[in-house]
Amino acid sequence: MNKDLTTSSHGRQNILNNRYALQKAEQHLALGGVVFNGETVFTKQKLLELFEISDATIERYLNSHGDELKNNGYQILRGAKLKEFKASSYGTLINEGTKTSVLGVFSFRAMLNLGMMLTESEPARLLRSRLLDIVLDVMVDRAGGHTKFINQRDENYLLAAFQEDNYRKQFTDALDFFVEGNQWKYPRFTNLIYQSIFHENATEYKKVLKLAEKDKIRETMYSEVVNLIASFEAGIAHELEKSSKEQGRKLTQKEAENLIANFEKHPLFKPLILDARTKMASRDLCFRDALHEKLEAYIQSVPEADFERFLGEKSKSLEEQLSDPDTLAVFKRLKDR
Fold first, then answer.
1. Are 167 and 234 a contacting pair, CB within 8 Å?
2. What element of type H or E holds 308?
3. Rounded Cα distance, 46 and 58, in Å
4. What pLDDT does 91 receive?
5. What pairs with residue 76 in β-bridges?
6. Any idea which of 43-57, 126-140, 323-337 has the lowest mean pLDDT?
7. Which residue from 301, 327, 303 is spatially nearest to 314, judged by alpha carbons?
8. Where are the alpha helices (DSSP H) in 143-269?
């Protein structure tokens, strides 16, 4: 992730969408606050003291980043809700003015959000440093010690990988039967598919993810990317066979290359490629601290659902999934088709 959280809205949101990191942060940072309706909240006065800043500074950030702060739990209390808050906060509102008719409060999440933005506060800088350490600890702990194969913790990964293997065979057979050339055409045309989908060849992809020579690329890919590669392989295999039979001969490698280029432009694949690029660029930056420079324009914050998917209670290592009788039964049924 972008380590400068003051300038990276994606980096801030990736932390705030990680409920496991937030739970550990709330436990270990012990920043105080008031419990209201079951959650910890902070008044503006409390944040002035906590971050050693002025009222004008907070107002400036509320004006410049109001939507982001509201989306992460900043709210203005009025009427009955304010009355309820005053009653539950006992004597903690002395500096807020007991006759105030409106009061802005920050949830723990919104408080962290502000702390990640503040450039004029030393306590906020220290908070950001501790937060990044907590996020890293949580990521490694919940991913089983490393994040290289965090994609495999997705319950959809095994099925996607199994099915893709079948389509891979169709693709390589089509290259054998319908395209001229030697064994070097397999990596060449595989790289053309990779470049069509995520603008990187195999060597570039390995470099971005810092993979070892023996690491298999597809074992690190997210299920959505694997599925899209399978779709490309199956579709291209069909088109190669069709074109070869129409011409009554094997295609030249240049003809096959042009066929793949035209295949990529089909409107069917436009939303699927966009989705794959976005997920790959965003997740790798968040979970693996890996930046795909050629996909930088596609980076978004990772949604909360993805943290559940890869770090949550239902996520399992590949070894755990393969030892699950229900999972094995599914693969047996697929194999027996």
1. yes
2. helix 304-311
3. 11
4. 52
5. 104
6. 323-337
7. 327
8. 157-178, 185-198, 202-209, 223-247, 253-264
| Under 8 Å between Cβ of 15 and 134 | no
Is residue 50 a contact partner of residue 30, using CB atoms and an 8 Å limit? Answer: no
Report d(CA 72, CA 239) in Å as an integer. Answer: 49
Element holding 106 (H helix, E strand): strand 102-107
> Measured between alpha carbons, how far is 328 from 210 in angstroms, rounded to an integer?
31
Give me the phi and psi of 191, to 5 degrees please: -65, -35
Q: Buried b vs exposed e over 291-315: b needs ≥16 C-beta within 10 Å?
A: ebeebeebbbbbeeebbbbbbeeeb
Type of residue numbered 153: R
pLDDT higher at 74 or 33: 74
Both tokens assigned to 228: 């899209």
pLDDT at 1: 47
Q: Is the pLDDT of residue 314 over 80?
A: no
- pLDDT score of 330: 47
Q: What angle do CA 320, 282, 120 make, to 5 degrees?
A: 120
DSSP bridge partners of 75: 105
pTM of the model: 0.87
- What is the model's pLDDT at position 182? 80
CA-to-CA distance for 155 and 144, rounded, in angstroms? 16
pLDDT in tens, 99-111: 678 899 999 999 9
Query: What is the helix (H) or strand (E) element at residue 329, kind and residue range?
Result: helix 325-335
Phi, psi at residue 171, to the nearest 5°? -65, -50
Altogether, the residues listed in the chain come to a count of 337
